[in-house]
Amino acid sequence: MTRVIVAYDISNDEVRRRVAEWLLSHGFARVQRSLYVARGGVALARDVERFVRKLIDPRTDVVHVVVVSDLEWSRRIVVGGSDAESDVYRVA
Predict the structure, then answer these.
(1) Which of the 8 DSSP states describes residue 63?
(2) How confident is the model at residue 86 (pLDDT cuts 50, 70, 90)?
(3) DSSP class of residue 41?
(4) What is the mean pLDDT of the chain?
(5) Are 83 and 72 in contact (CB under 8 A)?
(6) How far is residue 65's CA from residue 68's CA, in Å, rounded to a whole number?
(7) What is the pTM of this model?
(8) 52 within 8 A of 9, measured Cβ to Cβ
(9) In whole angstroms, what separates CA 65 from the centre of its chain?
(10) Is 88 a residue whose pLDDT tops 60?
(11) Residue 88, SS3 per DSSP
(12) Count of structural domains within the chain
């Protein structure tokens, strides 16, 4: 299984809100204000790309869509926060 990570820097408040709502409605969990993750693969990543491409201004905004394996996700390092997943190496 893989996960899709989406990180963005979108200057327009309304566009940013619409992207956040779309991600949440498509199974993404908000990890940080502009960082989301969901189980899925390339097809989900392409869906994100198609949606945000219609909304953002590429001169001022950027959206990163990354597909990672569960193994890679489990090896992430989290500093602080309240992420309760047991597969995280946490630095206090």
Answers:
(1) E
(2) very low
(3) -
(4) 90
(5) no
(6) 10
(7) 0.86
(8) no
(9) 7
(10) no
(11) coil
(12) 1
Tokens 């809100």 sit on residue:
17
Pairing relationship of beta strands 77-79 and 89-91 according to DSSP bridges:
parallel
27 in Cβ contact with 43 (< 8 Å): no
Reference 49, options 27, 14, 23, 16; nearest CA is: 23
Contact yes or no for 26/51 (Cβ under 8 A): no
DSSP state of 82: -
We report the CATH number of the domain holding residue 44 as 3.30.70.240
Hey, what amino acid is at 62? V
Its domain, for residue 38, covers: 2-91
Question: Closest Cα partner for 50 from 69, 26, 31?
Answer: 26
Burial classification of residue 13, based on how many CB atoms lie within 10 Å of its CB (0-12 exposed, 13-18 middle, 19 or more buried): exposed
Residue 63 · residue 36 · CB < 8 Å? no
Per-residue CA distances from 7 to 19, 36, 44 (Å):
11, 6, 14
